[in-house]
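Board notes, transcribed. Complex of a protein with pyridoxal-5'-phosphate.
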Amino acid sequence: MRKQQPITELVFDGDNNIDPYGAVVPPVYQSSLFTFDSWESLEQAFADKENSVIYTRGNNPTVQFVEQKLASLAGGEKAKLFSSGMAAISAGIIHFLAQGDHLITLKNIYGPTATLIRNVLVAKMGVEVSYVSGECLNEIEQAIKPNTRLIYLESPSSVVFSLQDLEQISALAKKHNIATMIDNTWATPIYQKPLALGIDLEVHSCSKYLGGHSDIIAGALIARQSLIKDICLQEYELLGAKLAPVEASMLLRSLRTLPLRMERHQQSALRVAEFLQQQPQVAKVFYPGLPSFAQASLARQQMTGFSGLFSFKLNTDDLAKIKKFFNALILFQKGVSWGGHESLIYAPAISCSVEQTPEHMQRMGISYSDMRISIGLENAEDLIADLANALAKL
Ligand SMILES: Cc1ncc(COP(=O)(O)O)c(C=O)c1O
């Protein structure tokens, strides 16, 4: 039988064997524990704890059903859902590192991930860290030490959307017996398949495109079976950041339309990025889908499409003018996060200046003129009109 397209796999639940009535939507098993008919069946369940449904902090049938869908979509053997993207990131990173180990990561990773590394791994666990731009293999090779255990990537990275060559980096890491992990939230498994390029562990904030409607916070790890098993029995169960069954069910509903939404986000983002690129008030647009993007050929080599989040730099450092532009937007609502139905604008410097050290902000190259926008599902021409109106205030 021919390999099904992602949309077919996401819509079709004919393999739903968790509902005895043939319901088209799998039931929400809102139960904290599951009972057994004997000592022997309990013993049997504990012998396969990774898969058994015993207690919802470990496994739950509704959550497992969604995990299977997600693993299949990403081309991984197994997925594990968490209560947030940060819970998944924390469990994954902590899994690979112990006191005295060395980690290589990017200057431009998501802010709270950088804080986790600095405040928990470095300050409390005694892990060493090196920051690289990730754009050049040589730079990563030179950062490798005898105690390097993990290379943590995010491609495209936060704010500047720079890419890393996943195939080259994973080959280099394998040569040195180093694990690789990537935050693949931006591209989603629809447009980028890091596991097929040799990356060991893929992490997602499902609070963005996978959830898609700005109404759930969730996270996921996807990898080969043995790695997910080790994480399940240690960090997943012990840190306890499981996803609630009802939220897993909401995530499943969202996944059914993921390919359709991504297509629309991509189309509109390209239109808006092209518009912004031509405006005199805009100094630079950072969108991997633009032919003028600095790493456009790598973008096309390792991604099959692009999402709707990007940033641009205004042509002024005058904070009063920047605020005037920002506050004049109507359709672009002002707030954090991204990947939902609604368009959003945010200036990363607002939170970075509070949450990050001045050195980290400088390392990221962020200033108040950097605007990040998430293109939602509205009509692209309406969004452009809103931006044109606000740019006219500059
Ligand atoms: C790239 C990226 N990774 C991870 C996260 C964290 O996800 P969550 O908010 O679900 O914990 C975010 C959230 O904004 C993000 O932008």
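The chain has a mean pLDDT of 96. Residues 258-277 form the longest helix (20 residues).
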